[in-house]
Amino acid sequence: MELKNKRLTEAEFSKQREEVLTHWPTGKDVNLQEAVEYLKKVPEHKNFAAKLRKANQEGITLVQPRAGVALVDEHIKLLQYLQDEGGADLLPNTIDSYTRQNRYNECEVGIQESIKENRSMLNGFPVVNHGVANCRKVLEAVELPLQARHGTPDARLLTEIIHAGGWTSNEGGGISYNIPYAKSVSLEKTILDWQYCDRLTGMYEEMGIEINREPFGPLTGTLVPPSMSNVVAIVEGLLAAEQGVKNLTLGYGQCGNLVQDVAAIRALVEQASEYFKTYGYNVELTTVFHQWMGGFPADESKAFGVISWGSATAALAGATKVIVKTPHEAIGIPTKEANAQGIKATKQTLNLLKGQRLPMSKELEQEINLIKAETKCIIDKLFELGKGDLAVGVVKAFETGVMDIPFAPSKYNAGKILPARDNNGAVRYLEFGNIPMSKEIKDFNRQLLEERAKTEGRDVSFQMVVDDIYAVGKGTLVGRPE
Ligand SMILES: CC[C@H]1O[C@@H](n2cnc3c(N)ncnc32)[C@H](O)[C@@H]1O
User: Fold this and answer.
1) Pocket of ligand 1 (CB under 6 A)
2) What is the pTM of this model?
3) 448 partner at 20 to 30 Å CA-CA among 67, 196, 305, 336?
4) Which amino acid residue places its CA nearest to atom 16 of ligand 1?
5) Cα(314) to centroid of ligand 1, in Å?
6) Helices 32-40, 187-206: inter-axial angle, 10-degree rounding
7) What pLDDT digit, counting tens, does each position of 362-414 carry?
8) How does pLDDT run across 137-169, given as a tens digit for each residue?
9) Atom 2 in ligand 1: which residue has the minimum CA distance?
């Protein structure tokens, strides 16, 4: 199918759908009309879009963990624990790595092994293998809205099953679930596949069912400059809106400097709203702030320091939702107790800061304007490369390095960009590669890095990047020379 940023026709969608539903036997249980009838009976307090809307209106920040295990009953117990003991406001279903690669046969093996070993032998919930009825079983066992959180380049069957199963939010996108998650899946393919997922979402909307979509904000979670992250969020939002998505949560991964992180969220909302208005999309916009996605300290008390700082920043930024880390982050998948601890520490901090926002200042305004200007440089180029077509522009932008995500595994990513922190810990561009920024912006980024170099008595160098990558795990924000 030719790549274009155009709403899929019914014929184009149905033709694909016939084949998608055969990718695994559980696809045959998906019946759109029956699913709509089921979804109409899902109470409002379990609809993801409705809960986000209420939080946005009340100006509160909702708390959501990540969580997923192999077997249905164990997964239900886990989610009930995070709901009742942790106090989560929204619940995830973190999907396992095999499902993310459409390797459903290996999921079957993992499910059988988990039964045999009486513990989860998969690193998430194998939703395609479990199918629609089990998704509904999970939804009916909790009192909160459910979302699928994953990293799936081809999420077409997954999306069919989760929504028929009553889950009313789906994370991901054709860029954000490819470049940071896959090595050699073409961007053209994943943008086409996610147009399918977004078209299905749009069809549910047209049948009266609200479904929330959330592009994956943090990307590689490793010193991603806010403007590059905002470009991906805005572009995936625009691509989704073209397919009929009406309820969008755009996201961002904490970098660590308070003014920059608050500015990133403010710039994201303002600039995304401007683009949706310009292109005539009437979408409801909320934001999600991901607590630090980089290396964590192994010491659990120190980990709580990082978690609380992310919570405070989310509150002061006025984010609609915050994604929680746990004191087991440095080790791996958390126990349910550690996961609940992360939620409780987050909620405590949010409650202490309830109603507070970082006030406008010269520094905050300057950072908002800088992020918007950098973002505009890149998006303008996208439309130029695509000769007006955003989808084509994205593919060409990665081919030419106009879009470039630091430390991404994808062979379609140029990898010429290099980020490093300035003297206050804000993430700046050390190397721009082929990213089209104005001379003024390039000079300003360089000047800020030179200020750090002067303070540290060393040259601006790749060593700063390395030091910054290890810094938070070692207890600081800026990787100062030892
Ligand atoms: C995006 C990466 C984040 O997702 C977390 N994660 C991945 N799989 C699971 C899982 N199955 N349960 C809880 N947390 C998980 C991981 O610890 C890391 O914080």
Assistant:
1) 66-68, 94, 123-124, 325, 329, 333-334
2) 0.98
3) 305
4) 333
5) 19
6) 60
7) 999 999 999 999 999 999 999 999 999 999 999 999 999 999 999 999 999 99
8) 999 999 999 999 999 999 999 999 999 999 999
9) 293
End-to-end CA distance of the chain: 54
Going through 18-152 in order, the beta strands assigned E by DSSP cover 62-64, 91-94, 146-149
Residue 453 in tokens: 């170099």
- Among residues 372, 339, 178, 412, which one has the least CA distance to residue 260? 372
Q: Report the phi/psi class of residue 118: left, alpha or beta, with left for phi > 0 and alpha for psi in -120 to 50.
A: left
Which residue owns the Cα nearest ligand 1 atom 4? 66
Instruction: Tell me how far the alpha carbon of residue 363 lies from the centroid of ligand 1, in angstroms.
Output: 34
User: For the stretch 206-229, what's the b/e string if a residue is b when 16 or more beta carbons lie within 10 angstroms of its beta carbon?
Assistant: eeebbbbbbbbbbbbbbbbbbbbb
Per residue in 415-469, pLDDT tens? 999 999 999 999 999 999 999 999 999 999 999 999 999 999 999 999 999 999 9
Q: How many Å lie between the centroid of ligand 1 and the Cα of residue 7?
A: 33
Hey, what are 42's tokens? 């899902």
Catalytic positions are 100, 171
Establish whether this prediction's ipTM goes over 0.90.
yes
